[in-house]
Amino acid sequence: MKNTFKLKTAFACVVAAGLASSAFADADTDKLVINGEIDIITTTVAPAHLENVDTIYSGWHFRSDETQAFQMDDFDNPGMIGVEKASENWDTVDGSEGKSCASCHGEAESMAGVRAVYPKYNEEKGKVTTLAMEVNNCRTERMGAEKWKYTGGTMTDMVALISSVSRGMPVNVAIDGPAQSTWEQGKELYYARTGQLELSCANCHEDSYGMMIRADHLSQGQINGFPTYRLKNTKLNSAHARFKGCVRDTRAETYNPGSDEFIALELYVASRGNGLSVEGPSVRN
Amino acid sequence: MKLTRRNMIAISSGAAVVASFGAMPAFASLADDAIAEITGGAEMGEGALTITAPEIAENGNTVPISFDAPGAVMVALFADGNPTPKVASFKFGKLSPSHSASTRIRLAGTQNVVAVAQMEDGSFQKTQANIKVTIGGCGG
Amino acid sequence: MAKGVKPRVKVPKTASAGETITIKTLISHKMESGQRKDSDGNAIPRSIINRFTADFNGENVIDVTLEPAISTNPYFQFDSVVPESGDFKFTWYDDDGSVYEETKSIKVG
User: Fold this and answer.
1) Which among A186, A185, A189 has a CA at the least distance from the CA of A250?
2) Does B64 contact A at CB distance below 8 Å?
3) B7 has a chain C CB within 8 A of its CB
4) How far is C45 from chain B (nearest CA, A)?
5) CATH code of the domain covering residue C42
6) CATH, range A33-283
7) Spatial CB neighbours of A40, under 8 Å, sequence gap ≥ 6
8) Which of A262, A268, A158, A273 is nearest to A222 (CA)?
9) Which residues of chain A make contact with B58, given a CB cutoff of 8 A?
10) What is the pLDDT of residues B95-138, one digit of tens each?
C-alpha cells in the first residue's frame, strides 16, 4: 500500500484534515475475474488525452473485499436480477409494430461490444447519443412503443443486460470527429466547479481519489461499471442518476438525466476510462 | 436565550452528542431478552461457534455474514443495535454436513452481531462480532 | 402477491454418492422491514419472506426463520450431503401468504 499525496486543492486539504494517515489508501491490487472466466481489466495506462492521471482504476479497486466479492460471481451479484428481468423484456413484443428487441437483434448476446463504444455520435440524429437513448429510439421508431423513463428501473435493467454481454471488452468511446465538440463540452463540465461547495468532478475524482471522504474511499469516478448495483439502495443505478447525486452533493441545482449536459459528461467520463473493461452490472456500496 | 448563530451551533452540537449516545448499543437488553427466550437463561459456552463478518461494512443495508457451528441443531443471529434485534434462525436437518450458512443482513449502525447455537446435547454456545457500519461521504 | 418475486437457485447437476455440495439461493424480494415511513410520514407495513426451507427427497437440509433484518433479495449459501440421485426442493414463505417453490434435480453417478 503506497501512500499518496495529491493535495492540489484547498478542498483536498479539508478532506485530509482529521484523517489518520492510514486513510491514504490507493486502489488495491486485487484481481477481478467474473465467474472464474471473464477477465476484467481494472487497472491500465491512462488514455493519451488525460493530462493529470497516469493510471486509471476501476471503482472496484476502491471497495472492501466483501463488496468486491459480490461482483465475482453472477449468482452473488444482485445486479443480475435486473439483467434477468431485462432478458424477459428483450423477448417481449411491445408497441404498434408487433416487435420485441429480439425481432431485430436476435439474442441479447448479439449486442456484445455495443456498450464499450457508447456514448457515440449518431449520424441520423446529428448528435451524440447514449445507450439508453438508443433503446428509446428503438422503442419509439422501430417498435411503435412508449419511451421508457430515462433513469427508471426498466431502462436501467435493459442497459445492464446490454452491458453484461460486453463484460471484459475494453471501453473505447470515440472522442474525435463529429463527437469532438460534445466531448469538449463534457470536459469543460468535468472541470467546472458547481454548487455552494464549489466542487468540480475533478476535485474529488482526479485530485483526491484514493483518499477518504468521511468514511468513503474516493474512486476515480470511472463509469465502466455502470449500471451499478448499490448496496445502499439495493437496485441498479444509471450513470446519469449517479451524476445527479454527485452534482447535488455539491449543493448545486443539477442537470437532468438525459440532458445534453449529462450526455456530454457521460461521453467525457467514459473516455477517461478508455482501456478499462466494461463491468456493468457492477456492485458498489 | 436569543437564537444567535453561535447559540444555534451550541444547541445543535449538543443535540449531536445526545444522538450519538442514543445510537450506541447501550440498550442491549432487547437483544439479551431475545436470546433469553431461546436459552431460558442457561449458561452459554464458547468455542464451537464462529462468525465471519467484515470488520467494517461499507453499507449497513447489505452486510455479508456467515457462521460455522459444527454440532449445532439451531443457530440464531441477533443484531444488538437494531430496532428489533432478531435477524434469523437456522435449523439444520440430517443432510446438513457443516451446520454453516451465509446470508446478507441489515445493520442500523455500528454494533455487535451475536450468534447463539443450540447444540445436540441441549447446551448453548455464543459468540459475537463487532461490525463498524460506515456512513459514506456522498449521499448520491 | 408481492411484485417481481422470483427465486433463483444454484445447485450442481451431478455429485458422487455422499458428497457434500454447496447450494446458493436468492429470491428477488423487497423485504419491506416495517420500520420505514412513506413521504407522508405513514409507516410502510412490513412485507417480508419469513421462512425458507430446503429439502432433499423429503429430508430437511435447512429451515430458516427470517426477520426484517435480512437484506433485500434474501440470499443464503449452505451445504448439503447428497446420498443418492433425487430432487432438492426449495420453498420461500411470504408474509402475504404466497409460497414460492423451486426444484432442482441432481444425479449421483
Assistant:
1) A189
2) yes
3) no
4) 15
5) 2.60.40.10
6) 1.10.760.10
7) A32, A33, A34, A58, A60, A167, A168, A277, A279
8) A273
9) 63-64, 66-67, 231, 285
10) 999 899 999 999 999 999 999 999 999 999 999 999 999 876 67
Cβ neighbours, 10 Å, residue C93: 17
- Are the CB atoms for A243 and A262 separated by under 8 Å? yes
Residue C1 lies in a domain: no
A246 in active site? yes
State pTM to two decimals: 0.87
User: For chain A, which residues score pLDDT lower than 70?
Assistant: 1-25
| CATH code for the part of the protein at B5-133 | 2.60.40.2470
A201 is in an annotated binding site: yes
Question: What residue of C is the nearest CA neighbor of B78?
Answer: C69
Q: Taking CB atoms and an 8 Å cutoff, what residues of chain A touch B135?
A: 214-215
Range of the structural domain that residue C10 is part of: 6-108
Given a contact cutoff of 8 angstroms between Cβ atoms, the answer to whether C49 and C29 are in contact is yes
Number of domains in chain C: 1
Q: CB-CB: which of B87, B88, B97 is closest to C81?
A: B97
Residues 50-109 on A with a CB inside 8 Å of B are 63-67, 69-70, 78
Spans of all domains in chain A: 33-283
A32-90: per-residue pLDDT in tens?
999 999 999 999 999 999 999 999 999 999 999 999 999 999 999 999 999 999 999 99
Distance from CA of A249 to the nearest CA of B (A): 7
Q: What residues have CB less than 8 Å from A136, skipping those under 6 apart?
A: A147, A148, A150, A155
C-alpha neighbours within 13 Å on the C-beta side of residue C36 = 11
Enter the ipTM: 0.93
Q: Which of A128, A131, A165, A246 is catalytic?
A: A246
Query: Does an H or E element contain C88, and which?
Result: strand C86-94
- CB neighbour list of residue A97: distance below 8 Å, 6 or more residues apart: A142, A143, A144, A145
Which cell goes with B121? 446435547
